[in-house]
Structures are given as C-alpha cells and as structure tokens.
C-alpha cells in the first residue's frame, strides 16, 4: 500500500489537494501533520481515515521520523518569505528556461532557498530520494479542504475593493500574473504522485523536476474589473468604477498589499504538459467571484442575509 506523509493539509492548496487524492485514490494510506487539536478535529471530521500527528515545521525529529515511514512526502505547507524585490518581467519556462529558474536573481527570491534544498536532496543521498517541485501561480477558486478555502491573493483584492468602495489598482493595473484554479494544482500533483508510485513513470525528477503550472495570464486590471462589477451587482459597493491607490494604502488594508496588487509573475508550464499530459480544466476567474466576494463580505460584517434585507436592516 502506498503511504503518504502530508504537510499543509489545513491550508488552501493542501486541503484541496488532499480532497482530490481521497477521491482519486482512497486506497492510499495518508498521515498528515497538524498544529493544533482544533485543526486536527476539522481534518478528522472530513477524513477519519487519515492518521494525524501533531507538531509544526520546526519539529525536525518528528518530520524525519514520519517521513521515514512514508513512500512519498508532500510538502504543501506555507513556504513564503516575502520581502521587497525589484520587478522581474522575465517570462520563465520549466523546459528550456529551467536553468534560469535555479539561477534567477536576486539571490533570495521568495522560495529559492527551499527550492535548492529540495533539488539537492536527491544528490546528497545518491538518488535514494527522488524530488520534484511544483510551483503554482496566482491560484483562485473555492477550495474543498477542511479549513482555508480561498487564496490570499483573491481574498486581499476583495478586501481592498470593499474597504475602498471601488475597484483598486496600483498604477495602470498593467502588471501580469499567471493564474490557475486550485483544483488544477491537485490534478497535477495526483499525476506526479502516480508517476512516483510507478517508480518514476514518465515524470522528470530531481534537478530536472521543476514543474510550473498555469492556465494563462491576466493583467491586474483584468482581475479587478470583474471583481468590482460583481461587488457592485451584489450591492456591496456603489459602482464598479476603478481607481488608483498608493502602495502605502494597499499595505494598510492588507499585509503585502503592494506585492499582491503590483508585482508581476510570468511563466509557461511546459514540463507538466509534455511529461504528464496535464491540462488545466478548472472554472474561470469570473465564475469563482460570487462565492469569494460573499465570503470576504461576511468576514468584514458587510453581508446581509435575505431576511435582513427583507426587514430593511
């Protein structure tokens, strides 16, 4: 029986991925790391067959012990290290441009230390461990996990819109992000794990195993315009007009607001398509907006139920 050790099951991507795994391969034996009994209870309610161990990413001995018992380890937990970086407008790919991904400058982009640790792991143990990196873009869509069900980017954009009462841009909103539905990340990970179970399959591993995943690009303006229209349709803002705000104001409303609203991240997913036959199939950005906007409005105390509206409250 294939044994998986999963880190990040309570997160947005991790939760949705585990849901996809349980649907596609209920025969896999899964163990998951959780930080607290509250989180553990939420996971156990949805997935009673998953074994839980309690700790965090700083519990090195625990992680080593559980990893040694597993055939495959999935690190789906948060690995961000946000900081101030100069703009990078280069369009990377994971095939001909793979070397650029490892050598990219500056020397400390968000995930590079973790990326290098993973890609070097197999080399340090003479191939006894085979590794792969999956790098998603701006992820959207309602997740199917037990805890966090919306992305940081979409959540932040809606919060800024509802706070300012308008669709908000930094500059002209021309900065570009690749986008992908959260379910498509899990679909790629299933294909990769299935290849691993087969002894490697057609997948690339170790230094060649850098898998970008995306379903095209969107400018910031193209993301914000339908958000503002939907928020106005739902009666949460007066009109769908767009306006420009400062970086400082964006940061006041949400952490890292200027990065979430003003940065550019572009790539091409070639390896997953060629090696694994992966193709994104998730719903569009616009189709996912009503649920996202309602969720954020409820959190902000702005959502009125049908009964409240009928009563004029």
UniProtKB/TrEMBL annotation:
Gene3D superfamilies: NAD(P)-binding Rossmann-like Domain. GO terms for molecular function: aldehyde dehydrogenase (NAD+) activity. GO terms for cellular component: cytoplasm. It comes from the Eukaryota. This is Uncharacterized protein. It comes from Cryomyces minteri.
């Amino acid at each position: 029986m294939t044994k998986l050790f999963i880190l990040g099951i309570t997160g947005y991507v991790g939760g949705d991925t585990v849901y996809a795994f349980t649907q596609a391969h209920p025969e896999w034996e899964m163990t998951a790391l959780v930080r607290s009994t509250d989180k553990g209870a939420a996971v156990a309610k949805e997935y009673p067959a998953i074994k839980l161990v309690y700790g965090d990413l700083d519990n090195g001995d625990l992680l080593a012990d559980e990893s040694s018992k597993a055939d495959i380890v999935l690190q789906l937990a948060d690995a961000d290290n946000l900081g101030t970086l100069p703009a990078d407008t280069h369009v990377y790919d994971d095939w001909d441009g793979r070397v650029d991904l490892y050598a990219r400058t500056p020397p400390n982009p968000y995930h590079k230390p973790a990326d290098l640790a993973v890609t070097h792991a197999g080399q340090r143990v003479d191939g006894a461990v085979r590794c792969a990196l999956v790098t998603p873009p701006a992820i959207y869509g309602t997740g199917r996990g037990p805890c966090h069900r919306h992305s940081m980017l979409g959540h932040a954009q809606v919060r800024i819109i509802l706070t300012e009462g308008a669709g908000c841009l930094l500059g002209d909103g021309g900065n570009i992000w690749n986008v992908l539905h959260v379910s498509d990340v899990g679909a790629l990970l299933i294909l990769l794990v299935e290849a691993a179970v087969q002894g490697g399959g057609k997948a690339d591993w170790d230094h060649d195993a850098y898998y970008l995943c995306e379903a095209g690009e969107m400018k910031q303006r193209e993301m914000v315009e339908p958000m503002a229209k939907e928020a106005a349709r739902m009666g949460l803002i007066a009109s769908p007009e767009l306006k420009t705000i400062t970086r400082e104001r964006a940061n006041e409303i949400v952490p890292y607001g200027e990065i979430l609203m003003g940065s550019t991240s572009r790539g091409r997913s070639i390896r997953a398509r060629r090696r694994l036959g992966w193709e994104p199939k998730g719903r569009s950005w616009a189709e996912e907006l009503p649920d996202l906007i309602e969720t954020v409005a409820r959190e902000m105390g702005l959502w009125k139920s049908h009964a409240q509206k009928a009563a004029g409250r």
